[in-house]
Amino acid sequence: MMNEGKQKILEAARATIIENGIQGTTLRGIAKKAGFSTGAIYHYYSSKEAILYDVMDEGLGEIRRIATISIEDKKEAREIIQEIFDGMQDRLKKDAESRLQFYLAHEAMLGNVELQNKFKEKYEDWINRVEAIFVRAYGVKRGPSTRAVAAWTMAAIDGMVLQTLLNVQVVESEHTNRILEYLLQDGFTHFFKLIENEQRFDS
User: Fold this and answer.
1) What pLDDT, in 10s, does the model give residues 44-65?
2) Which of 56, 58, 69, 116 is the most buried (most CB within 10 A)?
3) Is the C-alpha dihedral spanning 36, 37, 43, 47 positive or negative?
4) Could you tell me if 49 and 110 are in contact, meaning their C-beta atoms sit under 8 angstroms apart?
5) What is the mean pLDDT of residues 87-110?
């Protein structure tokens, strides 16, 4: 559980981002709103980017939540699939957190090693959880192929989020939702069967 000091900092960071935008958010501004000195912030975080990363991470908890439900609550496959569909709709609506994700990813690509390592750990976690959801929802065995499908799924989610942020509107949401529903209900089921058959043939 997050300690009270960190929670105050994250709440202050969210409020500062709303008021000033990501670029206008400074460590000093976050500290002031949290009621800390700038020096005191460093007891909790090494940089502004590290704070923003935790703000993003808290806001993008859908995969973690669905994985927990699918594994611990022992829901039926159809219920898990519905949770995935609903979770994707919620993910696309998280404008502020998504902007943070791409801002921080850009900083990582520019050479911020701390953020690079955080994103590596985060994608490892996301992919592991997506794979676990697939294993539970579709009754498949975990292996290199299920992990690859999870990685491609994460790439697709990132891509759809980016298109939403850019407001490109190349495809209407009703059509993308229909395809997502088809993939979840039938597409992944058939795809995983093909993978299983191929694995049997190879062995």
Assistant:
1) 998 899 999 999 988 888 888 8
2) 56
3) positive
4) no
5) 90
| Amino acid letter for position 117 | N
Half-sphere exposure of 186 (CA within 13 A, CB side): 3
Checking phi first, is residue 76 left (phi over 0); if not, alpha (psi -120 to 50) or beta? beta
Task: Please check the confidence at residue 2 and state whether its pLDDT lies above 70.
Answer: no
Residue type, 37: S
> What is the residue type of 32?
K
**Burial of 22 by CB count in 10 Å (0-12 exposed, 13-18 middle, 19+ buried)?**
middle
The per-residue pLDDT for 23 is 87
Q: Which structure tokens are listed for 25?
A: 């958010």
Residues contacting 6, CB < 8 A, separation 6+ = 44, 45, 54
Q: What is the DSSP letter of 188?
A: H
- Which of 125, 164, 133 has the alpha carbon at shortest distance from 149? 133
Tell me the C-alpha distance between 47 and 161, whole Å.
26
* 10 in Cβ contact with 45 (< 8 Å): no
Residue type, 57: D
pTM confidence score: 0.83
Evaluate if residue 75 carries a pLDDT over 60: yes
